[in-house]
Amino acid sequence: MKFQYVSICFLIGLMMSCGSTERVITEDGNVYEIKGNSIKNNGTDITETLTEERKSEIESTLKANRKAKAEAEALEEDLKAEQKALKEREEAVEEKQDELEEQQEALKEKLEAKEDARDDFLKAKKRLEKQQKKYEKLKKKGKLSPNEEDEWSEKLNDLKEELEEAKEKMNNLNK
C-alpha cells in the first residue's frame, strides 16, 4: 500500500518535472528542441556552444511559431463560432420554412372548405328551386291532395332549412 503511494507521487513528480519541450525548425533546416533554457540538437545539449545571435534567432523563431499557433487557434475558434452561428441560422430558417408550410397547408384547407361550402350551398339552392318548380307545376294542374300538399310543404321547408344551413356555413367560412 505504501509502495503505491510512493509510486504515484513519483509519477506525478516526474510528469511535473518533464515540462514541455518545443521543437523549432530554423530557416537553414536545423531542428532544435527547447526545454526551459536548454537547447538541444539531435539529443545533444548545445546551449553553451551557440552564439548569442544564433540563440536569439532560435528564440525569435520560437516566438514567431508561438504567435502563429496562437493566431491559428484564435482563427479556429472564430471559425467554430461562425459555424455555430451559421448552423443556428440554418435551423431558424428551417423552422420558419416549416411554419410557412403549415400556414400554406392551413390556407389550402380553408380554401377547400370554402369551395365545399359554396358547392353545398349551390346544390341545396338548385334542389330547392327544382322541387319548388315541381310543386308549382303539380299545384297548377291540381294533382295534389291535401295530404300531398302537407308532405310537399314539409319537404320544401326541409330544403329551405338545408339551404339556410349551407348559407350560414358558407358565410362563417368567409369571415
UniProtKB/TrEMBL annotation:
Compositionally biased intervals (Basic and acidic residues): 105-115
Region of interest (Disordered), ranges: 85-115, 134-156
Superkingdom to which the source organism belongs: Bacteria
Biased composition (Acidic residues): 91-104
Protein name, as recorded: Putative MAEBL
